Amino acid sequence: MDPFQGFQTSNPNPPILTPSFPANLSIATACTTVNSNANPLPAAASSSSTSPSPSILSRYENQKRRDWNTFGQYLRNHRPPLSLSRCSGAHVLEFLRYLDQFGKTKVHTQLCPFFGHPNPPAPCPCPLRQAWGSLDALIGRLRAAFEEHGGKPEANPFGARAVRLYLREVRDSQSKARGISYEKKKRKRPPQAAALPPTPNGNQNQ
Questions:
Q1: pTM of the model
Q2: Could you tell me where the beta strands, DSSP code E, fall in the chain?
């Protein structure tokens, strides 16, 4: 699911954000509009038309690039505008909460009769939110992009403790509300063969 789908700002100036992101948290369809005005990737040389170009980015790298451009656009449209050097974990949380209004994941409230029900039998008026998985993957990509653009790991706002706690809170609350588990399954180790006793030495004196 794409957390940035339908993402746009309410401020008419500067231009409205209409990004496009997918969920893993892949956030891909939202950055399309925002990045339509960004510098395009260099065109492949004509000689590469017959062979794959080594400069072609992977799906992950393309997604990370779109996410980074979209977040930069969000900072520029912020009131007052924010520079990346002044961006903190609090601004990242503000950004994540803003994205919630464009979510497509039903999160039941405690008053809802379907609270904790993984497959509700009927519709309900509970709000739609960004899925935890989508947000978690988005933060992972933005965290990597920040350092790739020269940011210091210790100053990375996407790795701030407040952001980690927020994601954990979202995971736990959605797990309870939706009746699903986000716990990673532990991989079972293959059974080890029982140790055999040492073979008696045939040359040993009787």
A1: 0.63
A2: 20-22, 27-30, 105-106, 128-129
